[in-house]
Amino acid sequence: MKKETLAGKIWGLIYPMLIYLGTTIIVTMVIQIGSLVYWKVTGQMKDTNEINALLQSKAMLFTFLSALCTAPILALFRKRDINKEKAWNIYKKYEMVNPVKYLLIIPFGVFTMIWANMFVSILTMFMPEFMLDSYMGTQQAIFGSSIAIQFLAGGIMGPIVEELLFRGLIYNRAKRMTGVVPAAIISAVLFGVFHGNWVQAPYAMIVGIMAVFVYEKYKSITAPILFHMSANIMATGMSYLANGLAEGQTETADISVAGQLISACSSMFINLALAVGVGIIINKVVRAKEVK
């Protein structure tokens, strides 16, 4: 089996993202067309504003269904990559790390999510309006969906398909070209850009780098998936509780920008220290042994 050309390697970093995007577009179009046909046949044709509002509220459902369709395809691509690595005599197989040690990933994901979110909150205080506006559509799509869909799409299927895509395929392919550190940066940057807005991009890049860390320590795609799930599920739960508390308040506290900045910085550094602490423990106690 011949090795890939440079152009082929670069294309290999791009086309998996295009497949995911294409699947999302196709799934969305099929559901939209099916809905329009159903409304017309049943005499429930809605006006344009009603249609747009309804479809907007189903955006996370489209994401869930797209991820469900794409995950098996990406898993097959990863299996094909492994077969290539075996043919090139560069594939390494590792014993499974003690399952108990996987529990360390959960607090690592939670603390990383919190400090990264606080970091982004600080950045948004200084972002120009056009950067903040780039997140509005995504924000409406997420919080316009039911909490169940938010958990299923953002907390379960999203991490599975995104880790298969960005760590399982893109990171591993980039690592063959450049080594661990450049590949981690490449996959993290692409992960950030893939989110399509200025607000989520920095957070996604941080998560991408940390996902590579646990991937390399545990030598299993299960590790970054669990890390990503832990971060997203906790973020979804915290947002839900925060929105519930906000709705129950009759008055909002008037906190100065300086007060918000101090609060965000304090939370960021505390959770960063906790994440680093758990990361040090993982680095010390987790050793994936290569199968000879």
Helix-strand layout with pairing:
Elements: H1 6-41, H2 48-57, H3 59-87, H4 105-124, H5 129-133, H6 136-143, H7 147-178, H8 180-194, H9 200-218, H10 222-248, H11 257-285
Largest sheet: none
Shape category: globular
Mean pLDDT: 90
Helix and strand string, N-terminal first?
HHHHHHHHHHH
Quickly count the domains.
1
Radius of gyration from the alpha-carbon trace, in angstroms: 21 Å
The total count of strands amounts to 0
Tell me the β content. Answer: under 5%
Description:
The longest helix has 36 residues, at 6-41. Helix content is 79%, strand content 0%. It has 292 residues and is mainly alpha-helical. It is built from eleven helices and no strands. Helix 1 packs antiparallel against helix 7 (147-178), helix 4 (105-124) crosses helix 10 and helix 7 crosses helix 9 (200-218). The protein is globular. It has one domain (6-285). The chain has helices at 6-41, 48-57, 59-87, 105-124, 129-133, 136-143, 147-178, 180-194, 200-218, 222-248, 257-285.
Name some characteristics of this structure.
79% helix; 11 helices; 0% strand; 292 residues; mainly alpha; single chain
Quick structural gist:
The chain has 292 residues and is mainly α. The chain is built from eleven helices and no strands.
